[in-house]
Amino acid sequence: MKIYHKKNFTFGLFALFLAALNLVLNLRQGFSWKGGALIALLGLLGAASLIRSLSQKYSHADKVEELDERNRLVKLKSRSQAYYISQFVFLSGEIALCAWGKINDSEPCIYLGLGLMLAFFISLITDFFTWTYYDEHT
After folding, report:
1. Which residues contact 5 (CB under 8 A, 6 or more apart)?
2. Angle, to 10 degrees, between the axis of helix 69-103 and the axis of helix 107-137?
3. What confidence score (pLDDT) does residue 2 get?
4. pLDDT above 90 covers what percent of the chain?
5. pTM
6. What is the rounded end-to-end Cα distance, in angstroms, of the chain?
7. Helix (H) and strand (E) counts in the chain
8. Around Cβ 97, how many Cβ atoms within 10 Å?
9. How confident is the model at residue 100, as a pLDDT?
10. Ramachandran quadrant class, 55 (left: phi over 0; alpha: psi -120 to 50; beta: rest)
11. Based on C-alpha coordinates, what's the Rg of the chain?
12. CB-side exposure of 2: number of CA atoms within 13 Å?
């Protein structure tokens, strides 16, 4: 057997591993319908990914789909928008939590706000360095 699409193969193995791990945990802690649904979903997803990665025809179709210019543009735009939304959420959460903590003398709220402030700061630094890198290399 030859693996034609290594990324799908790795994902399939990982999904099957998670399904087996959930099966073991559900058997030890008592089986629930939520756990069974998760096991079935992970098992089907992993098996389908493995089958697609071992089939030359399906692997070729997946690679063409990944390299399609329109799909890459949509992915780039969606990630960019998600980044801006997350920055807005970090900033508003930081302001709201710090203000709420100061008004109610609640230190945990202030610490949560500071944590969001750190996440916002990291996203700004990352944005600066990636902008600098791509500005020089394009």
Report:
1. 52, 53, 58, 59, 62, 63
2. 150
3. 87
4. 57
5. 0.56
6. 41
7. 5, 0
8. 21
9. 94
10. beta
11. 22
12. 5
Measured between alpha carbons, how far is 138 from 113 in angstroms, rounded to an integer? 37
pLDDT above 70 coverage of the chain, percent: 100
Contacts of 119 (CB under 8 A, 6+ apart): 90
- What is the rounded average pLDDT for all residues in the chain? 90
- CA–CA distance from 117 to each of 39, 62, 80, 97, 126 (Å)? 37, 40, 20, 10, 14
Q: How far is CA 112 from CA 106, 107, 118, in A?
A: 10, 9, 10
User: Alpha-carbon distance 68 to 74, whole Å?
Assistant: 10
CA–CA separation, 71 vs 76, rounded Å? 9
Cα separation values, 29 from 15, 22, 26, Å: 21, 10, 5
Give the pLDDT of residue 138: 76
Which tokens in the block code for residue 86? Answer: 């997350």
Helix (H) or strand (E) holding 86: helix 69-103
Give the integer Cα–Cα distance in Å for 43 and 36.
10
pLDDT band for position 71 (50/70/90)?
confident
